[in-house]
Amino acid sequence: MSVMDLDLRRVRYFVAVAEECSFVRAASRLYMTQPALSRQIRALEEDLGVALFLRDRQGTLLTRAGRQFLEDARPLLATSLAAQQRVRAAGREDNNFTVGFMPGVAVTPILREFSRTAPDVRVEVLHTSVTDQVDYLLDGRVDVCFVRMPLPSGMFEVIPLFPEPRVAALSSGHPLAERKAVSLHELRDLALLQDLGDVPEWRGRVSVASPADSGRFPVTIEECLEAVASGAGCYVMAAGMAGFYRRDDVTYLTLEDVAPRMVALAYSKHRTMPELHRFAEISRRMLGPAAD
């Protein structure tokens, strides 16, 4: 198999598992479910024709082939990323500026103010999500991105903006749906429709217990909400996203005992565009603590 045949996304997944020595921690770091990550690693092992990990009760260890592949994978990913960034930068007009955004973050006033102060810059926007926000930043599709923390440490300049409460999505037919707020303890009899890494405070049931189970977690927000509406369980999400995904058969309740997540602005530490600092300053002024 040649290097050109490799799926670089799977290579990145492999490096995460190798660095964490755990599929659970790597899945949390990559914002994936553990079963989905396991499938991707198995597919990579099939492509390469070798086992990369030894999995047992003691943990996840690299095989000899895995150690060799890790040594080669890191520079391969770095070279690929650098090439993508150079090509994207060369192919774009000098006055283009691309902003990544996600539901629940009010970016329109910021974009309007930025365009007013930089009339010579052509502003474009791209929709992102928590699961792909890192990819958009790394491969250069966006110059700057509104993100929900956490992000991998050491890779980005991060400007914290505001803490965002989290809510529980329940079927509108659930007895608790008439409430405005609820605690996790009160939801313990419901199944959590996501990985425990998303809600470390959870002490109740989880819909899928292990990668060996035949079922799977819903992947997209839409799938999660369909499962909630059908009464399969509950789903914890950012309050801003709840406002975007309104539907009659799902009710959102404020969670009283779950820590908020920080909404921030992020861009690659290697970017030097002057527009970045101007955009960051406007974002901080309009959404940061000083805006309260």
TrEMBL record:
Residues of the HTH lysR-type domain: 6-63
Q: Which GO terms describe its molecular function?
A: DNA binding; DNA-binding transcription factor activity
Under the heading PROSITE patterns, the entry gives: HTH_LYSR (PS50931)
Q: List the record's Gene Ontology CC terms alphabetically.
A: protein-DNA complex
Q: Which CDD domains match?
A: PBP2_LTTR_aromatics_like
- Where does the signal sequence lie? none
Superkingdom, taxonomy of origin: Bacteria
Tell me the protein's name.
DNA-binding transcriptional regulator, LysR family
This chain's source organism reads Actinacidiphila alni
